[in-house]
Specification:
The protein is an alpha/beta fold. The chain has six helices and 14 strands. Strand 3, helix 1 and strand 4 form a beta-alpha-beta unit. The longest helix is centred in the C-terminal third of the chain and has 12 residues. The protein is globular, with a radius of gyration of 15 Å.
């Protein structure tokens, strides 16, 4: 598995390009803008896009989704909860597609791309429909869990008690050597966050 990070959009969100080396197929997580840079990254690793996966519906993670899909194809997937917020025009959500996402994903869903199995884990709190994506020994946490921090909960749909519950019960229960790729900032591990993250105790 090849993982390439592209820092995209005016808010500097992490967009991840994840490729199965056997098949050459892969998926993109959270294209928040700067689609030209994302396309360059895809060309560098010679990846065919099967899915565009969105951890949540905030515009800094979704703005480039439709443009990227037009350029390379792939199905756009997001939780039904956040898709509804986008379609309702809630502040700071979207844009996405005029008719909504191509598919909705929920906790327990498994998406197969080449030899990769992507486990969808519901981690609400930052938004009602936040989804983390686990592939083997890595997890992409969007804006739920960061290096030594957690996502803000003061925006529409945020819930501070729920994000802490999601982290404790869904993420901190993963193997400690699991690598965490967050929606902003640097990577970390479950072990390090359990020991050092002062926002979750």
């Amino acid at each position: 598995m090849i993982i390439k990070r592209v820092v995209a959009g005016i808010y500097g969100a992490n967009c991840y390009l994840v490729k199965d080396e056997v098949s050459g197929k892969g998926f993109v997580i959270d294209p928040g803008g700067d689609v030209d840079d994302i396309l360059k990254g895809l060309n560098q690793i010679h990846m065919n896009v099967e899915y565009i996966l969105l951890t949540h519906g905030h515009l800094d993670h979704t703005t480039g989704a439709a443009e990227l899909q037009e350029a390379v194809g792939g199905k756009i997937a997001i939780s039904s909860e956040d898709d509804k917020l986008i379609m309702s025009g809630v502040k700071l959500y979207g844009p996405l597609l005029s008719n909504g996402a191509d598919m909705h994903i929920a906790s327990g869903d498994v998406i197969e791309v080449g030899e990769m199995k992507i486990e969808c884990i519901a981690t609400p709190g930052h938004t009602p429909g936040c989804i983390s994506f686990r592939v083997g020994d890595v997890v992409f946490t969007g804006d739920t869990l960061f290096y030594r921090s957690i996502g803000r909960t003061d925006l529409d749909g945020g819930n501070s008690a729920l994000i802490e519950k999601s982290i404790k019960e869904k993420l901190y229960t993963l193997p400690e050597d699991t690598i965490v790729y967050p929606g902003h900032g640097t990577a970390t591990t479950i072990k390090d966050e359990k020991r050092e993250n002062s926002f979750v105790r």
